[in-house]
């Protein structure tokens, strides 16, 4: 949402709208605090957060273990390049390799999912000596010029013309085994895919497609690289979505939830892939910095100790069961895996996402023009899930409880019945 702020008295919103690049559309609210699956705006209004920083806050906002680890590390050491070994980096690498699929025991550290995809692209080229790639229609791989080549949606690529060189990328229909088999050749360095397409509408891959992708790439000598940036770290009910399919890729791109809210990224790969990159062939200033490493250690340990993969599985099943019980002719399908859930509507989803936020205090995401995407922290309670579903049902039916309450208070005031100390709240 963009436009004039609803609360023009907010100096924070005014400043952000004045100085921001305007590349990202802004909501008309200023968030100032979060805990678990709840966030608060500057006025103190609470929201159930089913955005979680686009899938970052899997362990919840301000998880106490992550907060403590970051505070302790800031007091000790904040910056150290990867050329100089660091105790917290070594600790993080040990924790990370301890949860990745067997054989993925070499790690390139960076700061984001897009950076992880850029690394994957370079490691695939040096690892195979090939230069072509296969990516998925409706797939999303990031917004840098290199990662954009793998991103299907033309609107992300077209403004940059020939600078986005995807002439060496073949796009196939997600789930179509015959198209994939035809596209992978002796020139293919890697197949890039998400086990669950997020931006593409929250679409889980079939077991057959994932297993055939592994078989085809092995037959052709190409790498299989899974984008686990959004699906990783317990989001889908397993530590990594690949585990649902019994598939071990040659590499995985990781980011988002891995740092508990601190910027972080990684490309994990086999030793063979890592060893083929020439020394100095890739790098980065802030990758593997001690603060991110401390946050990552605390995050992974919290996920294991609190059984967050199982929590996501159980809560995701409950969430989808409740959503499927909603009686609305506007719903076409509810789908997802774990707590990565999409509700496809028969009409544009944006008005309902706006109503959820504005009228109900629920934050949700769009995934394609028709899909409402729910990505709550794994710490969300069943009571909060019930509240989200009830709110969603109300907005689908056109009920606005805040407007009804305002009308009720106005009627009471007109009749001289307004309770002492109760004021009519206006937007």
Question: Could you walk me through the main structural features you see in this protein, from its secondary elements to its overall organization?
Answer:
This protein has 427 residues and is an alpha/beta fold. Helix content is 38%, strand content 17%. It contains 15 helices and 17 strands. The chain has helices spanning 11-19, 52-55, 64-76, 87-99, 113-128, 145-148, 154-157, 177-183, 207-220, 271-275, 290-305, 308-324, 350-360, 382-397, 401-414, and strands at 31-35, 38-41, 46-49, 106-110, 132-136, 169-172, 188-193, 196-197, 203-204, 223-227, 251-254, 265-269, 331-337, 340-345, 362-363, 365-366, 371-374. A seven-stranded mixed β-sheet has the order 4-12-11-10-7-5-6, with helices on both faces. A four-stranded mixed β-sheet has the order 1-2-3-15. A hairpin with a 4-residue loop joins strand 2 (38-41) and strand 3. Helix 3 packs antiparallel against helix 11 and helix 13 (350-360) packs across helix 14. The longest helix is centred in the last third of the chain and has 17 residues, at 308-324. The chain is globular and about 80 Å long. The chain starts with 10 loop residues before the first helix and ends in a 13-residue tail after the last helix. Its EC number is 2.6.1.118. This is [LysW]-aminoadipate semialdehyde transaminase.
């Amino acid at each position: 949402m963009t436009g004039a702020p609803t609360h023009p008295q907010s100096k924070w919103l005014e400043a952000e709208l004045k100085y921001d690049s305007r590349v990202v559309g802004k909501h008309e609210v200023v968030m100032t605090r979060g805990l678990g699956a709840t966030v608060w705006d500057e006025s103190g209004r609470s929201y159930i957060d089913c955005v979680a920083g686009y899938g970052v806050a899997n362990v919840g906002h301000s998880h106490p273990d992550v907060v403590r680890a970051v505070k302790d590390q800031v007091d000790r050491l904040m910056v150290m390049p990867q050329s100089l070994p660091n105790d917290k980096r070594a600790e993080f690498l040990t924790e990370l390799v301890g949860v990745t699929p067997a054989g993925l025991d070499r790690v390139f550290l960076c700061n984001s999912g897009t950076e992880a995809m850029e690394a994957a692209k370079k490691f695939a080229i040096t690892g195979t000596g090939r230069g072509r790639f296969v990516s998925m229609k409706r797939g999303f791989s990031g917004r840098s010029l290199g990662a954009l080549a793998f991103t299907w949606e033309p609107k992300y690529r077209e403004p940059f013309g020939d600078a986005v060189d995807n002439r060496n990328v073949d796009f196939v229909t997600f789930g179509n085994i015959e198209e994939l088999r035809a596209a992978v050749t002796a020139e293919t360095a890697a197949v890039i895919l998400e086990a669950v397409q997020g931006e593409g509408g929250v679409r889980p891959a079939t077991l057959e497609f994932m297993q055939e992708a592994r078989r085809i790439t092995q037959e052709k000598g190409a790498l299989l690289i899974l984008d686990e940036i959004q699906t990783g770290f317990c989001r889908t009910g397993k530590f990594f979505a690949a585990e649902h399919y019994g598939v071990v890729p040659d590499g995985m791109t990781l980011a988002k939830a891995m740092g508990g809210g601190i910027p972080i990224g990684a490309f994990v790969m086999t030793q063979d892939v890592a060893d083929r990159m020439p020394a100095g062939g890739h790098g980065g200033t802030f990758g593997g910095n001690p603060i991110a490493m401390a946050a990552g250690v605390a995050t992974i340990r919290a996920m294991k100790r609190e059984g967050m993969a199982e929590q996501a599985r159980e809560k995701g099943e409950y969430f989808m069961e409740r959503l499927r019980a909603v009686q609305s002719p506007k719903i076409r399908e509810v789908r997802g895996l774990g707590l990565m859930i999409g509700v496809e509507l028969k009409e544009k989803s944006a008005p309902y996402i706006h109503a959820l936020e504005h009228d109900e205090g629920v934050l949700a995401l769009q995934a394609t023009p028709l899909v409402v995407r729910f990505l709550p922290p794994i710490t969300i309670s069943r009571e909060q899930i019930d509240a989200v579903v009830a709110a969603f049902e109300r907005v689908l039916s056109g009920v606005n409880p805040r407007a009804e309450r305002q009308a009720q208070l106005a009627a009471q005031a007109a009749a001289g019945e307004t309770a002492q100390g109760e004021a009519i709240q206006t937007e």
